[in-house]
Specification:
The protein is mainly alpha-helical. 64% of the residues lie in helices and 4% in strands. The longest helix is centred in the C-terminal third of the chain and has 28 residues. The N terminus is likely disordered.
């Protein structure tokens, strides 16, 4: 998030504003961000969403997915992930968690 309080805006919001103003690089970045994943990795998004639905929460909000949770999900679903797939899911979780945390911080700033 950029800015503070009510002035905070996401990177995407800034890109949209730049694109409306004719910035070609912003238009290209937005187009890239909305493109569906390549078929070879689309299954990872499905797996991540399935895992994310079972994520634990505590007094501080949702928890990151653990390797143990991923392993248990693999056993429950009879799926064996390759190492690169497991790492990609962990990376996706990191991005999701960072976005979630930024949203919470932004929402708290509005109070």
């Amino acid at each position: 998030m950029e800015g503070e309080g009510d002035l905070a805006a996401s990177h995407r919001d800034h890109l949209k504003a730049l694109a409306r103003g004719g910035d070609e690089e912003a238009k290209a970045e937005l187009a890239e961000a909305t493109r569906p994943p390549p078929p070879a990795v689309a299954h990872l998004w499905k797996y991540f969403l399935d895992l994310s639905r079972t994520r634990t929460t505590g007094g501080m909000g949702p928890s990151r997915l653990s390797r143990l949770e991923i392993r248990q999900w693999e056993a429950d679903e009879c799926i064996v992930l390759d190492l690169w797939e497991r790492r990609a899911i962990i990376e996706l979780d990191g991005v999701w968690f960072a976005h979630f945390s930024a949203q919470v911080a932004q929402d708290r700033g509005k109070d």
